[in-house]
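Before relying on records like the one below, remember that each one covers exactly one chain. Contacts with other chains, cofactors or solvent are not represented anywhere in the record.
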Amino acid sequence: MSEFVVHSVPGSPFGRAVLATFEEKGARYRFEALAPGGGRSEAHLARHPFGRVPVLAHDGFLLYETQAILRYLDRVLPTPTLTPIDAKAAARMDQVMNICDWYLFQGVSNVIAFQRIVGPRLLGLTTDMDAIIAAMPKAHTVFAELSRLLGRQSYFTGDAPSLADLMLGAHMDFLAATPEWAPLTADRANLVTWLERMNRRPSFQATTWERVSQLAKAA
């Protein structure tokens, strides 16, 4: 099979979801790192007109949007499958992936994780506490719903991880590094246990910000 190339920024939870999917599949890939802000370069805009990450290149085929990439990989690398066969479980996977995109990232992670991690660590910005405080009510709503959907299951669609767990886990692990994680999970222990389970998986251990940064330097 021809080479897979992932264009992303080390530390991006969207990029991590793609890399973790490759690791779950046991498939080889090449990581092409973009520097912070590199999404606006002419070369990257030719791959992604909206300047976001990640982008997958495979045999002359360019694909952006994380959900599209994950589903593509699950089709062209079918073993082990990361999409439930049961229609209701597959629908739940799709639902959680969309919650991740539209509610967890938009207005929660892109505020809290940015203000706590990305801005200070990469851009030298001072944390805006007012922005974090304003984001917390929505964050509690999102966490409450994710906790409800997970229930007592090991993963969001049952006993085995799906694309939803890989995508959501990358974002939740980012948030777990912020002080807001404790109040958001105080009454939602199942989310803490689930993330600990995800972080024990070799796919997540191989795709931490530090490991991906090392991978980028070695390229």
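The domain at 87-204 is CATH 1.20.1050.10 (Glutathione S-transferase Yfyf (Class Pi); Chain A, domain 2).
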